[in-house]
Amino acid sequence: MSEQPEFAIATPARPEVRSGAASMRGLHKGQQTKQAIVDAALGLAAQIGLEGLSIGAVAEVTQMSKSGVFAHFGSREELQISVIREYYARFSEEVFTPAMNEPRGLPRVRALFTHWMNLVAQEIQSGCIFISGAVEFDDRPGPVRDALASSVKTWLAALYRAVVLAKQEGHLLGDADEVQMAFEIHGLILALHYEARFLQLPGAVERANKGFENILKRYGNLSCVA
To answer: Domain segments of the chain: what residues?
Structure first.
């Protein structure tokens, strides 16, 4: 059984498939167009944030009419949630999926952190949807906030699960606090994003890596920590 958690955000139901080759071609083209809109919206949201995302802004970027974009999503809120879904899928593919190729235990925890760091480094110039979205919607209840929070919770649950498995494999001390360790790893990523992107402080990546090694020294079984 796969250890990858199910996405916290349900995948939208597939449109009903009509009979006939022409209908199938039309459906395929519609799906391609919708994906192109989501791709463009994700790139735009990385620059201006989810809050700044609108049907009109995406229509301008994609050189489509507002009614054309609206036909695929129906509302600004649905567009924002679709962007969150897409970002989560890409995040999982770039961070979680490759880490699952590593053995259970600290090798997998290290791989999760390394891939996460690599993604953050790529996003220094653009921005992280999870982090910027949390700032924009932290005090604004509703489906968009729920989608963001659900995605982040699912990812953090995967990180926590990796830490738990590391303890089960004997790679952590017997009294190691798995919740605290996962919390501290998450904190390093947030600090890196803040220092490198917002404050533009040199050496942030090196400090984050050093912080991770310090976490392993505190919680790890020294005979197993490489």
So the answer is: 21-219
